[in-house]
Write a structure and sequence with these properties.
Layout: E1 11-12, E2 18-19, H1 24-30, H2 39-45, H3 48-60, H4 67-75, H5 85-96, H6 102-110, H7 114-117, H8 134-141, H9 146-155, H10 160-170, H11 181-191, H12 193-203
């Protein structure tokens, strides 16, 4: 009963016998993501559970979010400021890896949670058509520039490779949808296939893929 979500409180014996003390199976089958017991108490035990709620809703939720859970997350949103960057980063990237994270991100924006993570602003509509690459989706989502990318990467303790990649995607020196073949060959030599492919997918330069 101290677990966070009902669907995370399912257990099984080695022989496959299912133990479901808090109704997690029915919730999972119905696409309901809800806290075990009192949502406010569960969040008070660990504020990261706010992001875990939205992450699981993005992956498994169907229909409107649980009203009690959403109200508790809204009320406790300021507590996200006290969490370590590593924990926020892990949940954010897992959420962005969901098949379609946009509806959940819209909900997070509506209740004031997304602003705690991306204070420089966002454009959720830019996720349309983006493949399930969490860091590229983050670059598409963010409205900031390279400086904002560095600030976010520092706060969330991204690796050096992740910082460089995010900064490049947020401040590319060229629009790949407008380059000719000669310029493309020059950029390919300068940046390499991996980086050029990454930017092309972000900018929607499908003719280059």
């Amino acid at each position: 009963e101290r677990r966070d979500l009902t669907i995370n409180a399912l257990y099984a014996d080695p022989d496959g016998t299912l133990y479901d003390p808090v109704g997690g199976r029915d919730d999972l089958m119905a696409g309901r993501v809800r806290f075990v017991g009192d949502p406010a108490r569960r969040i008070e035990e660990d504020r990261l559970r706010i992001l875990r709620f939205f992450r699981f809703h993005a992956w498994y939720g169907k229909g409107p979010a649980d009203a009690g859970a959403l109200a508790a997350c809204t009320a406790a949103a300021a507590g996200l400021d006290d969490l370590s960057g590593e924990r926020i980063r892990a949940e954010l990237l897992r959420l962005l890896a969901a098949p379609d994270p946009a509806p959940c991100l819209e909900l997070m924006a509506e209740v004031g949670v997304l602003a705690r993570i991306l204070p420089a602003g966002w454009a959720i509509d830019r996720l349309a058509g983006q493949e399930a690459d969490p860091l590229r989706r983050l670059a598409a989502l963010m409205l900031g520039d390279e400086e904002d990318a560095r600030a976010l990467a520092h706060r969330l303790h991204f690796s050096r490779k992740q910082r460089d990649r995010l900064g490049f995607l947020l401040a590319p020196p060229v629009d790949l949808t407008a380059v000719d073949d000669q310029e493309l060959r020059r950029l390919l030599y300068r940046w390499g296939v991996e980086r050029l492919d990454d930017l092309a997918r972000l900018q929607g330069a499908t003719a280059l893929l």
